[in-house]
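for the writeup, i need someone to sanity check this before i put it in the appendix. the sequnce is what the collaborator sent (i think, or maybe the updated version? ugh). structure was predicted straight from it, no edits. if anything looks off just tell me and ill rerun, i have time this weekend
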Amino acid sequence: MKKLKIVINLLILIVVFATPANAQLKKLAQTGLQFLKMDVGARAAAMGGAMTNTGYDANAMFYNPAGMARMEYGADVELNNTQWIADISYNSFAAAYTLEDIGTFGVQGLFTDYGDITGTRVDFTNEDGYIETGNVDVSGYAFGISYARNLSDRFSVGATVKFIGQSLGTNLMPDGSTKDNKVSGVAFDFGTIFYPGWESFRFGMSVKNFGPELTYEKESFEGPLLFTIGAAFDFLDMFTVEDQELLVSIDMLHPRDYTERVHIGAEYVFMDIFSVRAGYKSNYDNEGLTFGAGLNYEVSGVNIKVDYSYGMMEFFDAVNRFTVGFSF
């Protein structure tokens, strides 16, 4: 019980020191490529995005690549879909494979579909004062490769390099020509996870979207750099409970363009088959409570999992996410 008290006190201290007094949301508008900040994967989203120390599959690349080093299976493939607000959707994939004594390698892809957006331009030949120019080609994407390795039985490290880009359609110039509004570049993610030896308690950190400035014609902007530290612990490790887990995870986020935030998530697992999850995101203007569930079942040596999450929004319809994964 002494270890349990230590872990609980540590988690409380993390939340206290990570939450600024009278914290208020400040929109500083310093970054672009906002799609890189979205939660990827239904399990992660259901746990409020608190994934720095709890993602041990291919989807870990989107949160903390060090988590790949502790995959239960030698190979893992994840397919994710997010139905976001305003008919925006995000589709992503992640695949990872472990080579013995070398480490775990992974590839990832993220694609943003902004739906149908009708373009217009000024035209005073009709009473409306404008004409429609057809659908605008707006999209965002990221492709990356990752590597993770256990440096010891307690310490894991990981890194990702990714090619990122966004298109905001084209502009009609005064001379009648068109100008493409596109940017692309390279960004990096880094992460670590450490087990100090107190049952399943672990803590870690990650840095995401570190890279140079990008420029649309003349105006430059930075990517959504994010620094995260967090901790996780399976509370049922302290008791004699078989075939059940109660994982609690807390992440503290320091984004480049907002004030500090805290993500809290919990997951109850029964017999490694059925999971229920819940989470909460603090200091957001729209997001807050999240819920979800998942099923795992092994068939002929292949573990098949299906996850779903439901995210409540204050001013918009709820967000639904789906994940299908295969491990072997």
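Residues 205 and 280 are 19 Å apart (CA to CA). Residues 2-327 form a domain with the Porin fold (CATH 2.40.160.60).
thx in advance!!
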